[in-house]
Design goal:
CATH architecture of one domain: 3-Layer(aba) Sandwich
Shape: globular
Distance between the termini: 37 Å
Strand content: 5-15%
Oligomer: single chain
Structural class: alpha/beta
Strand order of the largest sheet: 1-2-6-5
CATH topology of one domain: Collagenase (Catalytic Domain)
Largest sheet: 4 strands, mixed
Order of helices and strands: HHHEHEEEEEHHHHHH
Helix content: 40-55%
CATH superfamily of one domain: Collagenase (Catalytic Domain)
């Protein structure tokens, strides 16, 4: 009964959506990454993105204007990782904030002598635990170009990672997945990546396991051949986790 009610509600949202099929198709043309999907998958992605925009609020910072095209561009890429998982994987938060360009964030670190140091960083995106996803439009606008770099996917993968606590590269597993296998494969690959460069894999992934998972997820969806060549076991794990095979 609950499933029928949910389906009825979603159908109403889709029927009343202000976004047309033509507007979705036009937006998809700007995202070569979606060329890896067949027609049926693209249709489901657009529907999922429509439901996503009904649930989430996208707002601009520093006078950035959030147009309908901006919303659709973000929604399509944000929903790609959960295409076969569902919107429940983005539960517990509602806000997406878009800056016109890289934004500054200060952090405090304690050194080995107990002295606090304040550092300033320019960021293209960040995801907060139980809080918003923050994106810089200059990096978001040209994401999805199949170059292995995608700030939208990166930050929304952090949200998946945070479903069971702070991001640590160990998101909730799919039914039937072996937690020990995930830990072993990802740990071995991360240790290797810290000392060996791999073609098409951003060195930022060597920062910590959470960034490693997010960076490799970008490559999984954008340039999957490079991930398979670098770490075939990781590719297979991600295919099982995301229930997708972009190759």
């Amino acid at each position: 009964m609950f499933r029928k009610i949910k389906q009825w509600r979603e159908n109403r949202i889709l029927a009343r959506s202000p976004y047309t099929t033509q507007s979705w198709q036009q937006t998809m043309k700007a995202l070569p990454i979606l060329n890896l999907l067949d027609e049926e998958q693209q249709h489901r992605l657009c529907e999922l993105a429509t439901l996503f925009l009904h649930q989430k609020e996208i707002s601009g910072a520093q006078e950035f204007e959030v147009t309908e095209n901006v919303k659709q561009l973000i929604a399509l890429q944000a929903c790609l990782p959960i295409l076969n998982l569902g919107l429940d994987w983005y539960k517990g938060w509602t806000s997406i904030i878009v800056y016109p360009a890289a934004f500054r964030r200060e952090s405090t670190e304690i050194d080995e002598f107990g002295v606090a140091h304040t550092k300033s960083h320019n960021l293209s995106g960040e995801a907060w635990l139980r809080g918003p996803v923050v994106l810089a439009w200059t990096d978001t606008e040209h994401a999805g170009a199949r170059d292995g770099n995608n700030v939208v996917i990166h930050e929304f993968v952090h949200k998946l990672d945070m479903l069971n606590g702070r991001a640590n590269g160990f998101p909730p597993m799919q039914p039937g997945m072996d937690h020990k296998v995930w830990a072993e494969v990802m740990s071995d690959a991360f240790a290797d990546f810290q000392v060996n460069r791999k073609e098409g894999l951003d060195r930022y992934g060597a920062t910590n396991p959470a960034e490693f998972f997010a960076v490799l997820s970008e490559v999984f969806f954008e340039t999957p051949v490079l991930l398979f060549e670098a770490y075939p076991k990781v590719y297979e794990l991600m295919a099982e986790f995301y229930v997708q095979h972009p190759l």
